Write a sequence for this structure.
């Protein structure tokens, strides 16, 4: 299970997605994640899934490796599906004891499940194709206007970079501790959920101790090298937009245009806040036409 977590890990490959500017990938990932919440329609989700498959093919990251990242969220996914199926009011389909399964509940469960899967897969794509250092540089460049209101942009980007770097380190440390405990006769599989949670205590205690020790060592190393923030610091490889980044933005705009067009054609399936926004915009256009 520990080795199935792919968030924060980098998959080295020579692909057009890996060579894109990290700012392009960060903006594209945010736009993709936001697009999943604009409309509630199976056709829109199908367009989003096809776009993700296209990006996976261009990234040269194995599809099996990408799907492996869904294993850690299977429990959350199953729990979310059951909550939506059994506790959504609507047209009854059948009953299990005192719990009634509704038609609207099944639709809501499928919608939430697909959206959650695409959210995880879309987030993993950015971290798998971008090193933490370049991702930090991208965040610092995109948040640069916040420096005008004295927001510590460099420090925020640095903290996020350290957090991303610590994910694979802590996963490796957890795997090492679990193997050491198994060699000493520990059992992490048998028993009920409470017994399994209790058996994880011998793993969590040394894991937290190791994490605090690594954090202290990192702080001492940064202080010994006279690190004082981002003032006057330069980059070894400054970020530059290239023609492939322009092409990527055009493809992203094309995807968003197709998705919005499909969502507007199925306006009855629009999520409530998006539908209200569209109706408000339509009302403004009608009032302006009356004025002119």
């Amino acid at each position: 299970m520990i080795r199935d977590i792919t968030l924060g890990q980098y998959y080295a490959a020579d692909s057009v997605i890996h060579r894109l500017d990290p700012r392009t990938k960060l903006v594209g990932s945010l736009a993709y994640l936001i697009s999943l919440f604009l409309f509630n329609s199976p056709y829109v989700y199908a367009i989003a899934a096809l776009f993700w498959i296209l990006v996976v093919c261009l990234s040269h990251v194995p599809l099996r490796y990408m799907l492996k990242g869904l294993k850690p969220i299977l429990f959350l996914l199953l729990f979310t599906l059951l909550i939506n199926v059994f506790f959504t009011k609507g047209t009854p389909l059948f009953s299990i004891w005192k719990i009634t399964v509704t038609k609207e509940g099944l639709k809501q469960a499928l919608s939430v499940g697909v959206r959650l899967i695409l959210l995880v897969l879309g987030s993993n794509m950015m971290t798998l194709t971008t090193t933490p250092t370049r991702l930090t540089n991208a965040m610092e460049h995109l948040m640069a206007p916040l420096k005008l209101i004295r927001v510590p942009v460099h420090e925020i980007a640095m903290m996020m970079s350290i957090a991303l770097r610590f994910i694979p380190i802590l996963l490796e440390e957890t795997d090492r501790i679990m193997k050491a405990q198994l060699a000493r006769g520990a059992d992490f599989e048998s028993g009920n959920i409470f017994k399994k949670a209790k058996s994880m205590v011998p793993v969590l205690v040394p894991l937290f101790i190791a994490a605090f020790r690594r954090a202290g060592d990192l702080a001492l190393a940064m202080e010994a090298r006279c690190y004082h923030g981002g003032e006057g610091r330069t980059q070894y490889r400054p970020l530059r937009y290239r023609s492939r980044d322009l092409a990527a933005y055009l493809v992203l705009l094309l995807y968003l245009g197709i998705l919005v067009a499909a969502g507007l054609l199925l306006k009855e399936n629009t999520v409530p806040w998006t539908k209200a926004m569209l109706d408000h915009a339509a009302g403004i256009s009608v009032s302006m036409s009356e004025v002119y």
